[in-house]
Task: structure prediction
Amino acid sequence: MNYIVLDMEWNQPWPGSPSARKVLPVQIRGEIIQIGAVRITETQQVADEFQVLIKPKYYRRLNRRVSKLTGIKEAQLREEGVPMTEAMEKFRAWCGEDITFLTWGFDDITILRENLRLYGMDEDWVSRWYNAQMIFNAQTDGSSSQKALKTAMELFNIEATRPAHDALGDAYHTALICARLDLKKGTQEYGEALKSHVNGFHGAELPGCISRKVFYDYSDKHAALGAMTGEENICPVCSRQMLGSRWFAQPGHRYMDLATCPEHGKFLIRVRLSNQPDGKVRVSRLIYEATSEAAAAYARRVEKADPQEQRPLQHRRRRSRLPEKKD
Result:
């Protein structure tokens, strides 16, 4: 049995563009444009590599954010990219039989399955996979936070020798990390690691935190933030309804707001949104004292806010967000 360390890059249409208005036969969060993979043998030796560029069929105009992040250009995809079906046939042949996929995060396999479904291709062969972040956490600091690939490399003193945000480069660096883990043990104990993640808060907790809670099953981001502003915005001291101020976005699908209790004053609310396996949204919420470091960060953010951000986040024009990756 071999492990296949997989990383991908995908394109999304620019909001308001003709591509964004296309109705596809299968809903996808992104169309794959690059696949990179590295094989790890059963004895945990980093072995051969695979990479391919894929010519997009549905989102042909390359999102400039994607191009800037990955360095991939439209002309390059037109000249070097192959159709999705051909790329998948090559990739599956390279993978071989009796394989287990490893990814750095939850998004890659989900995106791959969506794209296979879009083209009517078999997706059962990618059903055995594990998020290497969970194994890494379980065998290092035991935390539930999703660590960036760069952070994990630094912890293992692995020097970056390939470009970041390149599918093969990220797959190679992930493979170097995985080769230092006990993968057999990690896959056997994966259920517990995943449970710890689901019940965790996926981020560093700053000093002054007084409450932690996870909420489940919101239909989308706006429903989740609406609940955090409304019925779930309860004072941690007296349980009375608090009045929110405004949400400010932070990296990693995080948001912060300053809420006020009529009796006990102000509290800083920090939330992180993440997708559940069923597509609904989970919220990890932390509440901080008004005198905390986190609250001070909010005050500094207010001072720097531009006029567009003076309105509540949920009433601003919706912007496209890329699925979270490893940067």
